[in-house]
Amino acid sequence: MKIEFEKITEQAHLKFKGGEGNTNLKMYEDENTKIMRGRLEPGAFIGLHTHEANCEVVFIVEGEGKAIYDNVEEILKAGDCHYCPKGHAHSLINNSDQDLIFYAVVPELR
Predict the structure, then answer these.
(1) What does the angle CA 52 – CA 92 – CA 89 come to, to the nearest 5 degrees?
(2) Which of 38, 87, 100, 104 shows a CA-CA span of 20 to 30 A to 10?
């Protein structure tokens, strides 16, 4: 199944998951999975949150930033993949002066 993100309207989420600034998302969602194309503006971040019932895979497409994963800082750049397994906590931070573009997949685990 092809998902055409360029045809999905981007929606701004202010202080997403308790973070700061705008997290701009184009989202496809069904009963099994969320697939998102995200854009974090400079200085914005997704708040620290725990994946209680699912996991998340984040693939960085453009820009630089960092993740905080279980209280450990990970530097991320285009081409990097960040994984947060079920039961773990993470945040995504754009500490650069350019947009941080990423794709994220959150499967609903059963």
Answers:
(1) 25
(2) 87
Read off the pTM. Answer: 0.93
Strand arrangement of the beta sheet that strand 45-50 belongs to: 45-50, 89-93, 64-69, 72-77
Question: In the structure encoding, which two tokens stand for residue 29, read together?
Answer: 């969602």
Give me the tens of pLDDT residue by residue for the chain, a chain 110 residues long: 999 999 999 999 999 999 999 999 999 999 999 999 999 999 999 999 999 999 999 999 999 999 999 999 999 999 999 999 999 999 999 999 999 999 999 998 76
CB 53 within 8 A of CB 38: no
From first CA to last CA, the distance across the chain in angstroms is 22
Name the nearest CA neighbour of 92 among 14, 17, 8, 9: 17
